[in-house]
Amino acid sequence: MPSPHGRVDPQTFVFDDDGLVPNNRLPVLRYRLAIDLTGDEPERILENLFAANGWGGMWRNGIYDYLHYHSTVHEALGVTRGHARVQLGGDKGEALEFAAGDVAILPAGTGHQCLSASDDFSVVGAYPPGAKMQITRPTPENHRKALKTIPAVPLPESDPVQGRTGALMRLWKAAAD
């Protein structure tokens, strides 16, 4: 369900490869308060939105408190309850605040970890069709492997928040060209 304020453009962040966390030349997208989660089951609202836009493989939980990334797939993280401070881009990246209604879309290779969270913090994660999610820890060997797999991850066919005409389509296509 879109924000009551209409279509929201995401904030964008690009993080450099730091030698252990590869990150990606595609920008991380953060939609702030983009989803109206009014109702008894905000997780279901977000799951329905992601599914309607072709993203699946969903789960409900928090964000791991250790640095990791996914080298085979892009990931959407939608906050359904509470708030958290999340480090994106690895140790040399940026810590951002997330709250219920926010969605982050992480291109393959983007380092992330939860630094702190409210007791009620809850996230729905989702992935575009294709490869399965694998958790990768930042090591020199994993970095070398990821530099080969990340460029092969295809661009999604839709934005998990805004669908086929969403900002992801425009921003990621421009960055990939």
Which key features would you list for this structure?
single chain, Jelly Rolls, 27% strand, 177 residues, three-stranded antiparallel β-sheet, disordered N terminus, six-stranded antiparallel β-sheet, 18% helix, alpha+beta
- Cα-atom Rg, whole angstroms? 15 Å
> Which superfamily, in CATH terms, is the homologous superfamily?
Jelly Rolls
CATH domain topology: Jelly Rolls
Q: Any guess at the CATH architecture?
A: Sandwich
Q: What integer is the average pLDDT?
A: 94
Derived from helix and strand composition plus strand pairing, the structural class reads: alpha+beta
The main sheet orders its strands as: 1-2-7-4-9-3
Helices, by number, come to 3
Oligomer: single chain
Name the helix and strand elements from N-terminus to C-terminus, one letter apiece: EEHEEEEEEEHH
Largest sheet: 6 strands, antiparallel
Q: Report the CATH C-level class.
A: Mainly Beta
Number of domains: 1
Taking pLDDT < 50 over at least 5 consecutive residues as the criterion, the unreliable ranges are 1-5
Account of the 3D structure:
With 177 residues, the protein is an alpha+beta fold. The protein has one domain: Sandwich (Jelly Rolls), CATH 2.60.120. Helices cover 18% and strands 27% of the residues. The chain is built from 3 helices and 9 strands; from the N terminus they run ββαβββββββαα. The protein has helices at residues 42-52, 140-149, 167-176; strands at residues 11-13, 28-31, 56-61, 75-81, 83-88, 94-99, 103-106, 112-117, 122-127. It has a 6-stranded antiparallel β-sheet, covered by helices on one side. A hairpin with a 5-residue loop joins strand 5 and strand 6. The chain starts with 10 loop residues before the first strand and ends with a helix. Residues 1-5 have low confidence and may be disordered.
